[in-house]
Amino acid sequence: MASVRPILVIVSGCIMILTFILYVVSNALPEWGVSESQSEKATIGLWRACISINGPTQCGYIISDCKLYRGQAIQRCHKMMAARVFVTIACILSALSAVCIFTYIIIKTDANQIIFMISKVLPILSFIAGAIGLAVGIAFITPSDSIKLSSATFVDIVAVAINVIGAILTVLIR
What we know:
- The protein is of the alpha+beta class and about 170 residues long.
- The protein contains four helices and five strands; from the N terminus they run αββββααβα.
- This is Claudin.
């Protein structure tokens, strides 16, 4: 049973690296939602939106100052900001988790038990932040039936699912 522990630690560390990459990709892609008609296609992400009318695509950054919006757009802006925050926190926590897991393997010090405990907690926190970011991001993207979920949303769903696996594996390490 002692020989399973290093493998479990390495696998959970690799899973958290994969989780980090997926969270970064979902955060960066301007395709959380898509709306299409015959001649135009619009995509929206957490940071950028793009529109394509009969061919060429123009992209721009989404305004982050919610004070500029009125009515229901203010609520959508707040959802966008919350989704940005939680997905970004999930990115940071998943990266820190992988670093702690691999630090625990490589460095043998008196502080190893602290690093071990931190490496068990961070994947759980990363999962919570990722799940909240995903839920709020979907609420931001889908205020109407005309907008459908797109690739970045599905990447984030996969990231949250893999994050659960990483969190379970790190909890199983003894």
